Amino acid sequence: MTANAAQTTPAGSTDELRAVLVVAGTTGGIGAHVRSLAAGLSAHGVDVTVCGPAETDKLFGFSSAGARFHAVEITPTPGPRTDAAAVGELRRAFARASLVHAHGLRAALLSDLALRTARAQEIPLVVTSHSANLATGMERRLLRMMERRVARGADLVLGASSDLVARARDLGATDARLGPVVAPPLPPAVADREQTRRGLLSEKGRRGAAKEAARKEAGDRPIVLAIGRLTPQKNFQLLLDAASGWRGGEDHPLLVIAGVGAEEAALKARIKAERLPAKLLGYREDVAELLAAADVVVISSRWEARPLVAQEALRAGVPVVATAVGGLPELVGDAAVLVPSGDATALAAAVSALLADPVRRAELAAAGPLQAETWPTEADTVAQVLSVYDELTSER
User: Which of 163, 172, 97, 95 is nearest to 134 (CA)?
Assistant: First the structure.
């Protein structure tokens, strides 16, 4: 073990199965999924090591989930020096591994390279594919080459949605199966709904309870909530297009977006320039409280597999309007309103119609938790992964 690896030994660890989970920098669903796996696998006696950036461990607490943590700086974009350093650290982390499980393209590519350069091809490589290739032009071709190498190099590809499984097979994977990424249930919202709403509507809401004057000025506008990284995939520009049609009338909704990312400055500038009824909240940890305060949750993405925000909203009984992309239709079933991707007019109309129809909102609020009961649980996901690990390691 290197000096930067945590000296934490999981309770109930065993030398029979030593799994190394690899993850790049993430602030969302991938990190939550890896933490859930680390905790579940450790509870079953697996010796788990998580490799990834130190910042990711600080955010998700892999060590506190029962796993060792080995810091590996996996950067978002390739670089000769950074990749060489990451591969070297991964080789050290893989020295005792029975199996390697990489999450996402960058983590998978570097894991495959580390195994090959260490001549450790006898160690099985499992890859979970979490996202689609949404790039264009030369970047898309380059990413497709990487995807093909990963698909053909992995012993098994688990796709977070059915379309990702089909894509892995098209790219040459010898074995590709559905491996849904399940969001752990949120704790119940403990904040008072009206207090939270006042905080959202006030410019000083993040620094404490909003003043009554701010609440009066805001009125009783409905709150439309969106949560996610501020990146092109989430297509919050489309959501602002929809919000531009909500400016008329005193009861127009207020759009609040929780998240951080590369598009933050552009979105903020557009909201100000066009005087849109929208507000950026930045990074938030009180997701349960935000959901409790929302009238509708909107997902405007170009593509999603099984987005955590959709799972969290449906479990909480909050009506959802989402684009019909990727794995979203199979995830939400009839418990959400689906609109075509990229259609701002349809998105705005669906939200407006839902806000004007309390009966329909109540129906969706009741349907959400019922739909959630059809999803695999965290325990189901851990059991599937354990079965896969046993299958692959017994073949070696």
Answer: 163
Residue ranges of the alpha helices (H) in the chain?
Answer: 29-43, 54-60, 80-93, 105-117, 137-153, 162-170, 193-201, 212-218, 236-243, 264-274, 287-293, 308-316, 328-332, 344-355, 358-372, 378-394
β-partners of residue 178 are: 159
Measured CA to CA, the distance from residue 58 to residue 81 in angstroms comes to 24
Q: What is the pLDDT of residue 294?
A: 93
Q: Is 15 helix (H, G, I), strand (E, B) or coil?
A: strand
- What is the distance between the terminal CA atoms of the chain, rounded to a whole angstrom? 24
Domains of the chain, CATH where assigned: 14-182+377-394 (3.40.50.2000), 193-372 (3.40.50.2000)
At residue 210, the pLDDT reads 37
The set of residues, in sequence order, having a beta carbon less than 8 Å from that of 158 and lying 6+ positions away, is 126, 127, 128, 129, 176, 177, 178, 179, 388
Where the chain has pLDDT below 70, the residues are: 1-15, 120-121, 189-192, 198, 201-219, 247-250, 396
Residue 302 in tokens: 């170009």
55-88 pLDDT per residue, tens: 999 989 998 889 999 999 998 877 888 899 999 9
CB atoms within 10 A of CB 28: 16
Would you report the helix, strand and coil content of the chain in percent, each value rounded to 5? Answer: 50, 15, 35
The set of residues, in sequence order, having a beta carbon less than 8 Å from that of 338 and lying 6+ positions away, is 321, 322, 323, 324, 328, 329, 332
Residues in the chain: 396
What pTM did the predictor assign? 0.83
pLDDT of residue 219: 53
Give the pLDDT of residue 14. 41
Calpha distance 74→106 (Å, rounded)? 7
Residue 10's pLDDT is what? Answer: 38
Contact 314, 371 (CB under 8 A): yes
Quickly count: other Cβ atoms within 10 Å of residue 320's Cβ.
Answer: 26
